[in-house]
């Protein structure tokens, strides 16, 4: 499972939801991922200290700030690019496996108290965001 986590002033997915300050999380599910991986990645995301404290240092998490998360499924994060110029998506989990794990990730964030909005799994979406910093972190489990 891989997540691209962006600290945002605001973000929206159409179709889907919108948030104010918080994190935009692009989430890719790979073959072999399971519920335990989804929960661990959600916990890591919620506790990732990428928000500034009073001294301007990265010392606060989404849980500390009370921010929200916009979580958008993105199987293209699992692309293999070692050979040729066409990405290989064979390591991405099939939709019937990926969707429940995507939902479990979102539920795990909610269980921690994070307000969560989502895109629409499997849909073609337009995602807009204002990256705050910019701060972008890649988490890979």
Number of helices: 3
Roughly what is the average pLDDT, rounded to an integer?
Answer: 97
**Using only CA atoms, what is the Rg?**
15 Å
Question: In which range does the helix fraction lie?
Answer: 10-25%
Question: How much of the residues is beta strand, in percent?
Answer: 35-45%
Low-confidence regions: none
Largest sheet: 6 strands, mixed
Query: In total, how many beta strands?
Result: 8
Structural class: alpha/beta
Strand and helix order: EEEHEEHEHEE
Terminal Cα span = 5 Å
Shape: globular
Summed up:
The protein has 141 residues and is of the alpha/beta class. The chain has 3 helices and 8 strands; from the N terminus they run E-E-E-H-E-E-H-E-H-E-E.
Describe this protein's structure:
This protein has 141 residues and is α/β, with parallel strands linked by helices. Helices cover 24% and strands 36% of the residues. It is built from 3 helices and 8 strands. The chain has helices at 35-47, 62-65, 95-111, and strands at residues 2-14, 18-19, 22-28, 51-52, 58-60, 68-73, 116-118, 126-140. Strands 1, 2, 3, 6, 7 and 8 form a 6-stranded mixed β-sheet that branches. A two-stranded antiparallel sheet has the order 4-5. A hairpin with a 5-residue loop joins strand 4 (51-52) and strand 5. Helix 1 (35-47) packs across helix 3. The protein is globular and about 45 Å long. It starts with a strand and ends with a strand.
């Amino acid at each position: 499972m891989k997540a691209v986590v962006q600290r945002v002033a605001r973000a929206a997915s159409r179709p889907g939801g919108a948030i104010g300050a918080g994190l935009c999380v692009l989430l890719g599910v790979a073959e072999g991922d399971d519920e335990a991986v989804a929960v661990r990645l959600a916990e890591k995301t919620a506790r990732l200290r990428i928000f500034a404290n009073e001294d301007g240092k990265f010392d606060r998490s989404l849980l500390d700030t009370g921010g929200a998360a916009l979580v958008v499924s993105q199987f293209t994060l699992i692309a293999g690019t070692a050979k040729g110029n066409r990405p290989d998506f064979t390591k991405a989990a099939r939709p019937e496996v990926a969707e429940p794990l995507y939902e479990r990730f979102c539920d795990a964030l909610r269980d921690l108290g994070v307000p969560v909005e989502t895109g629409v799994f499997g849909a073609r979406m337009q995602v807009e965001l204002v990256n705050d910093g910019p701060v972008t972190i890649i988490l890979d489990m």
